[in-house]
Amino acid sequence: MKVTEVPAIAGALLFEPTPFTDERGFFCRTFDADVVRSVGIDPDAFVQDSLSRSVRGVVRGMHLRSGEGEAKLVRCSYGRIFDVVVDLRPGSPTYLGRATVELSGDTQATLYVPAGCAHGFQALTETADTSYRIDREHDPSEDVTIAFDDPELAVPWPLPVTLTSERDRKAPGLAEVLRTLEVKAP
């Protein structure tokens, strides 16, 4: 498994497995505790796995958690997604930096999103299944949402946005969130 840094976001990493391919399809390891540990992440810290299914054009995000935040491993297990991370950690060398990565079921690459970063994605295929491995139990009182179409974020969504949740449609802009957000620095 190859691990590369995502330069626009301090601490973000891309894990790219090496699939074994034959006439049946492929097999690959999508998580390896030893590899995760070798780059300074505690593999035992992850306490929850979640899965979302989205249709083409759907945007989910931009989401993060206040306080301690939450780190996550994000992988598109089927289809393709345009994934976005924004660093909202005061004091981070990449504060307010933005990274975009295409994740797909073909590669099974996993993106590590550090705690304190906003995350969102857009489904690029008719069906896109996205898996999350999260390092904290969900606490709805810590949920923070930023408008996915905020001009300050200027996310270059590759497709017209076809659908979002009500929460995402009504989310405040980045400036408003930053006035009240409490995120611990890395």
From TrEMBL:
GO terms, molecular function: dTDP-4-dehydrorhamnose 3,5-epimerase activity
Top-level taxon of origin: Bacteria
Pathway: Carbohydrate biosynthesis; dTDP-L-rhamnose biosynthesis
SUPFAM superfamilies per record: RmlC-like cupins
Record's protein name: dTDP-4-dehydrorhamnose 3,5-epimerase
Protein keywords: Isomerase
Reactions that this protein is recorded to catalyse: dTDP-4-dehydro-6-deoxy-alpha-D-glucose = dTDP-4-dehydro-beta-L-rhamnose
Gene encoding the protein: rfbC
Family: Belongs to the dTDP-4-dehydrorhamnose 3,5-epimerase family.
Enzyme class: isomerase
Quaternary structure and partners: Homodimer.
A Pfam family this chain is assigned to: dTDP_sugar_isom
